[in-house]
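note to self: dont lose this again. the chain is below, predicted strucutre after it. 379 aa total, dont forget to put it in the shared folder this time
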Amino acid sequence: MITSRFIPKAAAVAASALVVVGLAACAPPEKGSAGGETDSGVKVAEAKSAADFGGMDKLVEAAKAEGELNVIALPPDWANYGEIIKAFSDKYGIKVNSAQPDASSQDEINAANQQKGKSTAPDVFDLGQSVALANVSMFAPYKVATFDDIPAKFKDPNGAWVNDYGGFMSIGFDSSKVPPVTSVNDLLKPEYHGKVALNGDPTQAGAGFSGVLMVAVSQGGSADDIAPGVEFFSKLKQAGNFLPVDPTPATIESGQTPVVIDWNYLNATESKKVPGWQVLVPHDAAVAGYYYQAINKDAPHPAAARLWQEFLYSDEGQNLYAAGGVRPVRADQMAAAGTVDKASFGDLPVIDGPVTIPTQAQTEAATKYLADNWAKAIG
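---
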């Protein structure tokens, strides 16, 4: 059972047939298309707020004219994205194309680069901190209607990126297959031989990165020193306990990955499907992280991409995030305004004690260390 409250204290962190888009040379671009203009004369792909469209109604009109939105790396069970996508599509009549739901943050960037100029390129990104901050040049600045409601530490001042939701790193385990996990150190015991999985390569995935950081903190490391986390995974590999399989709901439910290091909201989802599944947020190693939301500057559906952002940061979108077990970035402001869904917010984890949230500089240094040492440690 999780017995911990997410209290953000510092800069936010960390937390998947191609048709070429072409226009006839003699035909001017339509308003609302990637190459068109808004009613106010601003290029759709350069619109920095709904005001550039002439207001929210005009933005909705332009997005509906595009008719589609491409998202990537949004598993239905991750942060309630299945319900969020459905709610957005139902509300606006826009088809949402969800590609590579189990992709990593780096896979999202790779897809955008590989599919640039094609109708299937991602319109929006949902990224871990290290990947997001390494690729800000690919983002289109945009300020949603609730932008001023979002604390400064959780957004780029120009709207290039905005944190959307956060959670805690945790250890999920099937108590019908392994002894209860009470600490990170338990994972080195023989009872967990071949059973411990990490969600993603920490050099590419936000969840994997934060998982190694959580372990590092438990071993006396910190956001400034992730080496003890890498050393622990090396020991885990030598003991035969590390399972080099990316966990998914399918691997958990089949019993292939009975112990999973992942975000608390993802592990908690499995509690509804696997009777013996339990979740531990180590109180001596509480690591929190936010994910980064951004618009692809080369989005094939730029109006729909901007409407998607508006939806995510609206009260409706933020409450849908909370229903998925994550803490939405506007949580405190919505609580003060009385617009939260009390049932969803009441189920969020509660932590009483120090919480590690690495800064950008700490994440960059840790990312470099992982790039140089992770493969050697678990190879």
